[in-house]
């Protein structure tokens, strides 16, 4: 019997795609459970779609992607929608709010899920919020800690350094919360410990007043991001999130990354970190206040044994519960259709779609103008400037 042909697609080669879907499916292909290919949305052709038994749509929201999903559903393909963010409830201070909060895009997302057989997610809150939209059911699968196969465990037994490195890794949307909760504590810590500590920020570049820190630009390419994370040697990793319904629906990616690189993670005492962190065992949970962060970081800086305990325990936890092989096995257990489903034969000529990069570009621009009206030109120019700024960093 032939293997199931699984095709996943996404608008961009983003970390969400790599971590949540691509590496899991690549493993299943390597173990000869399925045939798998990942494509950018613009790369999809009628021939690719015709050969597929299962289509996995990753965070799709565009009308072009909606048309693909509808057609695949009409042709009898099994459709899975992967979602790792609460896209229907993007907060007003997020950089993507102008796009995702438009009525058209929100309707696209709901209709895509309506045409999906399964919703695949990493968070119980997303399952509860979105399960009513999907045809069959929502499935929760953890995302793997990809860095554990990249970072050698020997790194975690290094001698104590004279200067303790404290780092943060995250997108630019974290800038506001870093400045709100960490600006004063980090400056006070620097005054207290002087050359005994240093700070590094990857991705977000907050205004921290007089505090000097090393800035590491965000890596849009996931392989470059992995390489950067392999080369940093943080003793403490900061993971700050506000207490909100939207942020509670996120995944605890920072735990996977900090644990893998041997850093002792210090986390806001909120979901999703409460899902995975046991206080002072595999992480430190702190109150989201200036005093909470100051005292929590001071506690970790002063306590070498605790730092090492957290680093060792979190790494072991990841190796046991968050390896790609473990998550892939869980995925088959929860969604056996991945290896058993076969679609009826389909000829590419049967597919009623106009595909191609030019068509996708037109669709994206059309979506922006239709959903945002007179604000569209400003939005497009802002996005172009942001991209140029990132490329020049």
How does this structure look, described?
The protein is an alpha/beta fold and 393 residues long. The chain has two domains: 4-144 and 324-392, 3-Layer(aba) Sandwich (Rossmann fold), CATH 3.40.50; 148-321, Glycogen Phosphorylase B (Rossmann fold), CATH 3.40.50.2000. Helices cover 46% and strands 16% of the residues. The chain has 17 helices and twelve strands. It has helices spanning 15-30, 46-51, 63-74, 97-100, 103-114, 124-130, 175-193, 222-231, 245-248, 253-261, 273-276, 290-302, 304-321, 324-334, 337-340, 357-372, 376-392; strands at 4-10, 34-40, 54-58, 78-83, 118-121, 137-140, 164-170, 197-203, 214-216, 236-239, 264-268, 284-286. The protein has a six-stranded parallel sheet, with helices on both faces. Strands 9-8-7-10-11-12 form a six-stranded parallel sheet, with helices on both faces. Helix 7 links the parallel strand 7 (164-170) and strand 8. This is Glycosyltransferase involved in cell wall biosynthesis.
Could you give a short description of this structure?
The protein is of the alpha/beta class and 393 residues long. The chain has 17 helices and 12 strands.
Secondary structure elements and their pairing?
Layout lengths: L3 E7 L4 H16 L3 E7 L5 H6 L2 E5 L4 H12 L3 E6 L13 H4 L2 H12 L3 E4 L2 H7 L6 E4 L23 E7 L4 H19 L3 E7 L10 E3 L5 H10 L4 E4 L5 H4 L4 H9 L2 E5 L4 H4 L7 E3 L3 H13 L1 H18 L2 H11 L2 H4 L16 H16 L3 H17 L1
Parallel strand pairs: 1-2, 1-3, 3-4, 4-5, 5-6, 7-8, 7-10, 8-9, 10-11, 11-12
